[in-house]
Amino acid sequence: MQLHQTSYRTDTCADLSEKDLGRAVTLAGWLHRKRDHGQLIFVDLRDHYGIVQCVFSPDSPCFATIDKLKSEAIIQLKGSIVSRPHDTVNPLIPTGSIEVVVSEITVLSESMALPFPVNQDLDCAEEVRLTHRFLDLRREKLHQNIILRSKVIASLRRRMLEQGFTEFQTPILTASSPEGARDFLVPSRLHPGQFYALPQAPQQFKQLLMVAGFDKYFQIAPCFRDEDARADRSPGEFYQLDIEMSFVSQDDVFNAIEPVLHGVFEEFAKDRLVSPYPFQRISFADAMLKYGSDKPDLRNPLIICDVSNIFENAAFTAFADIVKARGVVRAINVPGIASQPRSFFDKLNMLAQEAGMPGLGYVVKEGAAAQPAKAAVGAGTAEDQTQAEYWEAEKASTKGPIAKFLSGKELAELFQEMGTQPGDAVFFVADKNPAKAAKNAGFIRTKIADALNLVNQHRFELCWVTDFPMYERDELSGQIVFSHNPFSMPQGGWETLLTQHPLEIKAYQYDIVCNGIELSSGAIRNHEPETLYKAFEIAGYSRDMVDEKFGGMINAFRFGAPPHGGCAPGIDRIIMLLANEQNIREIIAFPFNQQAQDLMMKAPSEVTAQQLHELSIAIVPPKK
Fold first, then answer.
1. pLDDT at position 209, please?
2. Strand 304-306 and strand 328-334: pairing?
């Protein structure tokens, strides 16, 4: 029996080719498209595997039946395989050289008129698509995305097993814990007034598995967070490749995970290149400085530089005052754009203002420098020119709205530090808040690259971002809070927590990033009870609070916990990148909309008074 043969079919629509000429077949599927040519009716029959053309002649007893059927009716056809006429061969589909001459038809299920066509990719309101998701999933592109999802998960699972990991399942009903997002709460019928929570991640359970003596854990883990939707984040529910390992350092985790992720990307990249491993490692500080983001897109060749030292004592007070107030001046050199029209620069300035910046300063180096680029500023003159003449020549060759405020010496130092050549432009972002300056510079870096099409769309560039700060200051409360994962080991351990200022402490925390999208957060865990208590104390948690929230794990650590760590790459985001989709809902079979609603199943929905009574719950309407 063939793999896909059933009582309804001998073959699938993708199985057939010229090797089957003359053979009788039985097929079953959807009426994808019908074309009436008067003397003949041509039908494209579609199933999960592909499409094949079927032919009905007027003298066939099937002709009247197929003539009245609507698209998406489900039919069973019997017939024989023949070659298509040479001038009708379709090279775009695997079955394009043959067709089925139909001798018998059975209508298995008829279809009403469709709310939108599924045999073509026309724009359709997302609300309509999600309400009829079962129809939307019949469309070729979305159907293939969901098949890709299955294949990627199977590949991840296979590669993890080959690396010696063991697959586990952890509880879905668990206790609420403060992990950075809102929990989905589930009321307990047996314990009135008490609630379970759906896990934001299996964090504590996977660490407890390491304490229990298991060595390498993984899970295709569902995670639940009550947060707003974004293009790369589904509200409510998402999946991650959850990983944990015992007796490991940060390098050990990287060495185990890199072959898995590189292999999956390479397997499904098609014609796109994947950065080789070991992946580049970038510290958090360098990522914020050079790329203006802790999720750097390395396909963008533009690099941000700190040029604060050049302007500390400059006559240009707009920059000098910022530097003196412990702010920073960041610059981006963009090669070869001096010939761009003024409107190009004006548009970037407008984008900067729309993002909350006062504007975007820039200078354009139009002509050649009087002094060769290889000569150091201040080391004498080139040939018979004086240094002053050289600086004056630099100023004369520079244009732009702030060029007149900068001296020739400052421009010469700037161009040397930035590697600026004739025809280049340098853009500036300055702010008294270094974090804000970094963010703004990253925004401008991205906008310039987009405007100039500098980003290589045919690459997957993966990197690790490491050495995250353990703590940060909350902008609203001013309090010290965890900046990443509260269970991370501080670099230097207990001693660091006692001797360093909290904002200077780095943690063994790391992210893996691909094309500017964070795929995963991870860390080497803080497995020492007293060090864990101290880390939480700095963030404002008492011992009693830690015991209440994390008592199970703290207690387990007292019985001996191995050094351990892991990470959790987001499966949805990996598939979104591989499918080249901009919206995560395009790679999830049954997603919520942006308001966290399932329009097809009508969730969330009201429940009966009896259900509420059993749970000892009363609904209190929100105040208007």
1. 96
2. antiparallel
CA angle 513, 571, 444 (to 5 degrees): 35
Nearest Cα residue to 278 out of 264, 307, 257? 257
3-state helix, strand, coil in the chain (%, to 5): 30, 25, 45
* Secondary structure letter of residue 616 according to DSSP: T
Helix ranges (H only) for 19-139 are 63-68, 126-131, 133-136
For residue 426, with 0-12 CB atoms within 10 Å meaning exposed, 13-18 middle and 19 or more buried, which class applies? buried
Residue 295 pairs with which residues in a beta bridge? none
Burial (CB count within 10 angstroms: exposed 0-12, middle 13-18, buried 19+), residue 127: exposed
State how far the Cα of 446 lies from the Cα of 305, in Å rounded to an integer: 15
Give 259's Cβ-side CA count (13 Å radius). 12
State yes or no: pLDDT of 4 exceeds 90: no
From the number of C-beta atoms within 10 Å of its C-beta (0-12, 13-18, 19+), residue 451 rates as middle
What is the spatial distance between Cα 134 and Cα 600, in angstroms, rounded to a whole number? 9
pLDDT tens by residue, 362-401: 999 987 554 544 444 444 444 445 777 777 877 788 898 8
Give the count of beta carbons closer than 10 Å to the beta carbon of residue 565.
27
Burial class (CB in 10 A: 0-12, 13-18, 19+), 501: exposed
d(CA 416, CA 194): 66
Taking the C-alpha atoms of residue 361 and residue 353, their distance in angstroms, rounded to an integer, is 11
DSSP classification of residue 507: B
Are 405 and 316 in contact by the 8 Å Cβ rule? The answer is: yes
Average pLDDT, the chain: 91
- Which region among 110-114, 421-425, 473-477, 515-519 has the lowest average model confidence (pLDDT)? 473-477
Output the CA–CA distances (angstroms, integers) from residue 470 to 58, 247, 424, 481, 491, in the order listed: 77, 22, 39, 9, 9
- Count other C-beta atoms under 10 Å from residue 35's C-beta: 10
Half-sphere exposure of 289 (CA within 13 A, CB side): 10
Q: Which residues contact 459 (CB under 8 A, 6 or more apart)?
A: 272, 273, 274, 275, 299, 515
Instruction: In whole angstroms, give the CA distance from residue 248 to residue 165.
Output: 14
> What number of other Cβ atoms are within 10 A of residue 582's Cβ?
9
Q: Cα separations (Å) of 395 from 240, 312, 430? A: 54, 19, 21
- The closest of 585, 422, 539, 489 to 180, measured between CA atoms, is 539
Nearest 5°: the CA angle 461, 298, 452 is 120
Buried/exposed code over 546-560 (b: 16+ C-beta within 10 A; e: otherwise)? beebbeebbebbeee
